[in-house]
């Protein structure tokens, strides 16, 4: 069978170029910026290797095999541990001073001097082997020997991003100058920029949440959902679509492309009083990207980037996406402050 015809494979390069070219031009001769660029390129090098392993599925052993649990009690799969070790090795070579990973109890001490990295190596690993999206989320934070970089508010991040492993391998990232989206070329492994200065629509009719938790929600969130589910006949005056991928990276990528709102709220179940997602290496980088793209990210009422972590693996409720809807959820919670 002959090879399929190419369908504009070079268009992205002609129009926007590669991530490597962008970072090189952005960093220039600035040593600090070069440090940020090196860590982002390190993440992409690791992502290229990881994408090949994910694509191989069970052909190279079972990546979803349970091997233990992490500090938060979440089950660890073989690919969780393998991806953690991969990122530590490559980020060490790229010059990281410290790395905080979801899959390690404490930060890994390395020999770099300028920047630390916080990372969720495989977000949504429950989807491994099922063909649905998984991803990597990362945050780059200025490093100082005098304070713990991972206990600083998220607004101190120097850069943040994610890699989504779906039907394409997609990157979203920001160095504080807007959000860029890129896709990995399947033949060369090069990340080519497909969109610059991403802006999330302010309004949306798409919700992403785990509907099975509805009965556990506090009254204010239940009322918000009740009004949305009432559709055109209700107070919102329009119908809403519901989406849930079980992967924050997948939700993030879709929302950057087309808008929407995601929430994983605090609820009444033991262990969920403070939400479920981790502040430092999940909520903070997501919030950084949201703010850069004109969206919002809160814990329901407070901006995520203003929160001060209480521990390396502390959890937070998270609401992010289209600004108008995130603000509306805050107004529901503010109207019933004793419910959250």
From TrEMBL:
Presence of the UniProt keyword Aminoacyl-tRNA synthetase in the record: no
This protein's name: Fructose-1,6-bisphosphatase class 1
PROSITE patterns (UniProt xref): FBPASE (PS00124)
Gene: fbp
Positions bound to substrate: 210
GO molecular function, one term: magnesium ion binding
Subunit composition and interactions: Homotetramer.
Coiled coil residues, start to end: none
NCBIfam families referenced in this protein's UniProt entry, alphabetically: PRK09293.1-4
Ranges of residues in domain Fructose-1-6-bisphosphatase class 1 C-terminal: 200-333
HAMAP family noted in UniProt: FBPase_class1
Enzyme Commission number(s) from the entry: 3.1.3.11
Keywords: Carbohydrate metabolism, Cytoplasm, Hydrolase, Magnesium, Metal-binding
Pfam families given in the database record: FBPase, FBPase_C
InterPro entries: FBPase_C_dom, FBPase_class-1, FBPase_N, FBPtase, Fructose_bisphosphatase_AS
Cellular component GO terms held in the UniProt record: cytosol
Cofactor: binding comment: Binds 2 magnesium ions per subunit.
Family: Belongs to the FBPase class 1 family.
Pathway assigned to this chain's UniProt record: Carbohydrate biosynthesis; Calvin cycle
Any one biological process term the GO annotation gives: fructose 6-phosphate metabolic process
Cofactor(s) demanded: Mg(2+)
CDD domains in alphabetical order: FBPase
Compartmental location: Cytoplasm
């Amino acid at each position: 069978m002959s090879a399929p015809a190419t369908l504009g494979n070079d268009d992205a390069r002609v129009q926007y170029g590669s991530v490597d070219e962008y970072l090189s031009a952005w960093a220039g001769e600035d040593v600090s910026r070069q440090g940020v660029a090196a860590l982002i390129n390190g993440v992409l090098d690791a992502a290229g290797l990881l994408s090949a392993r994910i694509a191989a599925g069970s052909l190279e052993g079972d990546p979803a095999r349970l091997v233990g649990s992490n500090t938060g009690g979440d089950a660890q799969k073989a690919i969780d541990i393998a991806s953690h070790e991969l990122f530590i090795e490559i980020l060490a070579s790229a010059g990281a001073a410290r790395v905080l990973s979801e899959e390690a109890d404490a930060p890994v001490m390395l020999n770099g001097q300028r920047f630390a990295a916080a990372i969720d190596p495989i977000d949504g690993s429950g989807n491994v082997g099922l063909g649905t999206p998984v991803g990597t989320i990362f945050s780059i934070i200025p490093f100082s020997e005098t304070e713990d970089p991972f206990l600083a508010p998220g607004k101190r991040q120097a850069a943040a991003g994610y890699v989504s492993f779906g039907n394409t391998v997609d990157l979203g990232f920001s160095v504080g100058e807007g959000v860029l989206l890129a896709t990995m070329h399947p033949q060369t492994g090069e990340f080519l920029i497909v969109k610059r200065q991403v802006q999330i629509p302010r309004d949306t009719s798409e919700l992403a949440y785990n509907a099975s938790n509805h009965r556990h929600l506090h009254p204010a969130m239940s009322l918000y959902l009740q009004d949305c589910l009432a559709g055109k006949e209700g107070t919102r005056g329009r119908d809403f679509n519901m989406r849930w991928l079980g992967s924050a990276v997948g939700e993030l990528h879709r929302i950057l492309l087309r808008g929407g709102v995601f929430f994983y709220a605090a609820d009444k179940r033991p262990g969920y009083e403070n939400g479920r997602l981790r502040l430092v290496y999940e909520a903070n980088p997501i919030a950084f990207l949201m703010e850069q793209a004109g969206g919002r990210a809160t814990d329901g009422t407070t901006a995520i980037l203003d929160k001060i972590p209480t521990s390396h693996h502390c959890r937070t409720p998270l609401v992010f996406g289209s600004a108008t809807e995130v603000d509306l959820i805050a107004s529901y919670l503010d109207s019933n402050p004793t419910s959250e």
